[in-house]
Amino acid sequence: METRINSIWMIVFLLWFSSEYSIAQVGINTRTPSTAASLHLEALNVTTMDYGGFKMPVVTEAQQASIPVASTNNDDDGLMVFVNDPGTGKQCWEIYDAFAQMWRSIYCFNCSGEVLYAEDFNSYVDNTGITGDSASNGDYPGGVSQWTLTSFQSYGSSVPDIPGTLLDDEDYALVIGGQLECRDTNGSLLFETTPFSISGYSGVTISVDVSESGTMEYDDTMHLNDFECGDNFSDYVDISYSFDGGSTFTEVPNFSGGGNGDHTLIAEIIGTTTVTHTVTGVSASDMIVRIQLQTWAGSEYYFIDNLEVTCN
User: Fold this and answer.
1) What is the pLDDT of residues 75-134, one digit of tens each?
2) Domain residues for 8?
3) Is residue 113 within 8 Å of 311, Cβ to Cβ?
4) Residue 64 placed within a domain
């Protein structure tokens, strides 16, 4: 009986002890934790006289995505991990923002040129894309996951529509010979990447090769906007980008003097122009790049190739 009573008192003591310390400060390597801290860590282990640090959980991006953070409340606000992913090259200390329901990078190691998005059009069969006769050609759309193509209802319209201004099978945006070839679009045509992750990087650089064939023209006086710009005359290419699914896209203007204030490139392009544009001070999780272009004759072609976005 005495042994049983002692056991009961021991259980009561342990419950009392754990309840007392569950509402007090916790100190590791210290007997006098700060009253302002719920958890106080000292670097010096007085037993071994060695110094140590705080090691947070280390995960890959896929493992991070599988963390079951709450979606109906803010309980996980402030959750922290260190992302070290050999596959993507990402090395970032990140904290969970429960209000925005997204991970935010606190600090990332210096970028070493990791490729965040790349499209060289070499993985598709010829004639992949859209024409005035069909919105489904070659691998498009079922076998294409990195981008979409859109024509518009009519000249001056911003309403997506296929075939829209593409009038027949001779008007097209098709992958031919490992590049995207755009012929006689009769108004704006849009290439758009699917969203890709830039999480953890404060700067990105866009690079894309643009060339043309034919007699390209442009008249500044005929420009009203990107959809009403030189009916049956003006030819141009615009490169733009957006962060975190934003509806507002920022256009790269007048690249290297080959465009103007309204367009990245206009009229004749000598050889292949590699458009590059660097954006700094970025705080976003994902990005979209657009290429909008316009040609007006069966003898006029724009060629797009080697689109790449790297960290900066």
Assistant:
1) 999 999 999 988 877 788 889 999 888 888 777 776 778 899 999 999 999 999 999 999
2) 2-42
3) yes
4) yes
Domain membership of residue 51 (yes or no) is no
In a domain, 238, yes or no: yes
Q: Two tokens at 258?
A: 């080959």
256: left (phi over 0), alpha (psi -120 to 50) or beta: left
Instruction: Please indicate, yes or no, if residue 18 is contained in any of the structural domains.
Output: yes
Specify whether 105 is located in the same domain as 132. Answer: no
- Of 145, 209, 137, 195, which Cα lies nearest the Cα of 166? 137
Q: Which of 290, 286, 280 is nearest to 312 (CA)?
A: 280
Same domain, 294 and 166: yes
9 and 135: one domain?
no
Q: Which residues contact 80 (CB under 8 A, 6 or more apart)?
A: 56, 57, 93, 94, 95, 96
Distances (CA, A) of 285 to 101, 127, 186, 203, 271: 11, 33, 35, 12, 35
